[in-house]
Amino acid sequence: MVNRKELNPEASPREAFGARLRSVREARGVTQDALGGQMEYSGQHISAVETGRKPPTLPFARRADLALDVGDEFEREWGKIRNGSLLEGFSEYVRCEARAVEIRIFEVGSIPGLLQTTEYATAMEAANVKRGVIPPEQAEERLTVLAERQAALERPNPPIVIAVLDESCIRRPIGGPEVMDAQLARLITFAERPNTILQIAPYVIGERCPFSRVVNLLTLSDRSVVSYVESQTRGYLDRDIPTVVPLVRAYHQLQAEALSQAASVALINEVRKGIL
Description:
Layout: H1 13-27, H2 32-39, H3 43-50, H4 58-68, H5 73-84, H6 90-97, E1 102-107, H7 118-130, H8 136-152, E2 160-166, H9 167-171, H10 177-191, E3 196-201, E4 215-219, E5 225-230, E6 235-238, H11 241-257, H12 261-273
Parallel strand pairs: 1-2, 2-3
Antiparallel strand pairs: 1-4, 4-5, 5-6
């Protein structure tokens, strides 16, 4: 076959997906054009996915499962690609987060993902692409994961979400004035929900702030607590009681030092006045 690209499934989850798609398709005796017709994609699109030139989406994976009658194989393969776009350790945290009955967040420097608007999140990922940290398709995958996480908060009996944000989160401009103003408005709306608490840890608390990096604490339905702490290159999920309990204690101390929710909303509104 002319110009047939040899695939290396070990190279990446995306190439593994493409290699498996090609293998199953050829075993069925189906051409790329024929498979594309079944899935409502072009044959060129099928070729691009098989050779790793185009990332598969979740709808694509599900249609491939149906067209090739392989259960949920390609959806699971897509999940490996999606998790590959995340910080190491974060995919496991996301699974726990979706089951949590209480979520406690501390963030420094930027609005935490669960509270971000689409425009704010897009600006953050666009900056990562521009700096060469991630390719564009990986940015798209991260935005998809974020949308799924936010949607999980809208489930029946949603979790209690407590967010304490360092003052830097609301003062660091992201995406331009309009994006930032809408993002701060989103925080105020978040604070009005019956299952949420929003507090700002002001600069003036100084050394009394017990955390210097992102910390998330999840309470699960069995009342166990899981902690997640990020460094620059990976995340650490911890279920070990001796190390989790001090973080819970420090979080309570942080809440005592932070502004009340009413004072936090007032500060956010004050910051908004200087944006537009």
